Amino acid sequence: MLEAWIAALAGLLIGSFLNVCIYRWPNDLSVVRPRSFCPNCRQPIAWFDNIPLLSYALLRGRCRHCQCQISIRYPLVELLTAASFFVAFRFLGPGAAAVKFSIFAAILITLFFADLEERILPDEFTIGGALAGIVLAAFVPMNWGFVRLLLVSLRNERAISVAESIFSAAFSAGTLWIVGALYQKLRHREGLGLGDVKMIAMIGAFTGLQGALLTLIVGSLLGTVVGLCYIWMAGKDASTYELPFGTFLSVAAFGVGFYLELALHTHGQFGR
């Protein structure tokens, strides 16, 4: 339990950095320089006003300099990241599996809010996330998929897992790209952005083909139900309104990814 609370504390700090990424990368800004500043008055934020959760509460959600309202997204990202890290280490135990899911969760949280706010899925978290998933597959083997069937004679579990991750990323992205291309050809308008294709590649790299396909199904259903309800209530035009599909994929991937990791962890099916 102590490890889970330490992980939650790390999640708060990482969540604070994720907020910087969510704001800056979609706007082509560096996440290194300048130091944190208020988006409204551009004044630098002092370290004591940048403490996760605590500073937001003490400032009552307002900038110290201009009194502009600070988006609720900032404490939400910090809290969600901390909670995700806690859940990972509490239920998966301290180890590579918990670290892998924590990284996956941090990526998904960032993509959720970036797509919701800016309709942008930064390459740093889609392509970069896919590469991270492939690397982590060497330490947290996936025990399902076509690659294992094709390489049945290969005894190197790490190599099989990495190959499975690469195949899942490529196949998932390729399939979604073909679907999007067919939709555009038939309807003469874009149905899926390239960011969604790269995002599903990242999800495939982390969860395998099974997880990516389940995420697509759940995410599509979630997007249809929630999206249509929002369009109806807000009086939007369903034929032109752009739904943040990446946001729905993030929610679906979080649930599917955790379920698969927990199932493998519980039953010990790590190919050993």
Give the helix/strand layout.
Blueprint (H helix, E strand, L loop, with lengths): L1 H23 L29 H5 L14 H20 L3 H23 L4 H14 L9 H5 L6 H31 L6 H41 L10 H23 L5
Helix pairs in contact: 1-3, 1-4, 3-4, 4-5, 4-9, 5-7, 5-8, 7-8, 8-9
Could you describe the 3D structure shown?
The relative contact order is 0.11. The chain is built from 9 helices and no strands. The protein starts with a helix and ends in a 5-residue tail after the last helix. The protein folds into 2 domains: 1-93, no CATH class; 95-272, no CATH class. The mean pLDDT is 88. Helix 7 (157-187) packs across helix 8 (194-234). It has 272 residues and is an all-alpha fold.
